[in-house]
Amino acid sequence: MYQLTCKKCRRLGYKVCDSAKCGLVRKPYPPGQHGKSLRRRVSEFGGQMAEKQKLKLIYGVREKQFRKYFDFASKKRGVTPQIMMELLERRLDNIVFRIGLASSRRAARQLVNHGHIMVSGKKVYSPSYSVKPGDQVDIKDSSKTKKIFADTKTILKKFNPPKWLELDKEKLSAKILTLPDKDFLAELPVDVSKVLAYYSR
Questions:
Q1: Domain segments of the chain: what residues?
Q2: Which of 81, 103, 170, 194 has the fewest CB atoms within 10 Å, measured from its CB?
Q3: What global pTM score does this model have?
């Protein structure tokens, strides 16, 4: 699985996998026999597709769901790229990752799928669940003593979440204060306008 994803990392030129041994670190060029010397000119469409793939892989979203996010964002009043990114950032698996309860979004999805995460007192099994300001995200009480969370408090001592999330490092819980602002979204390593252009063609 990692080997397959690492090839995508090298093709995109950006690390989207969870592996500490990602091939992109050792071989920062496209895969294949001529990858190191290959400097192919990327078309406008190719660039748009690459950004779309990068964004999908970063958040671990399948094409059907990703397209739904685009359709919703494009119909809603406001700045479409910002709305699109808000939808991705509000996913429960992303929140679990952002508050430091998981080392990656992939690991966060597993925690949600296995019923370890609660939102405002209710167990949620859907990684795509969309949180809103005022929601509280917790580890289920009976899960806090499990081995997977044994080092979490120690790890969180040096961890700081984005300012739109309030983390209680002792209780292993977090509150959604606001939606992510445009400055935070602007720091993300994706040109969302190219993603939108891909779907709008």
A1: 91-176
A2: 170
A3: 0.82
